[in-house]
Amino acid sequence: MQHSLTHRMFKKVALTLIFLVVAPAVHSQQFNFQPCYAFWKLTDRLREGIELTPEDWQQLKETDGYKRVNTTAWNQFIQQVTLVYTPGNQERIQQQIKTDRSLQRIIRYEKEELNLKNYIARIDQLHLMDR
Question: Which region holds residue 125: left if phi is over 0, alpha if psi is between -120 and 50, else beta?
Answer without folding.
Answer: alpha
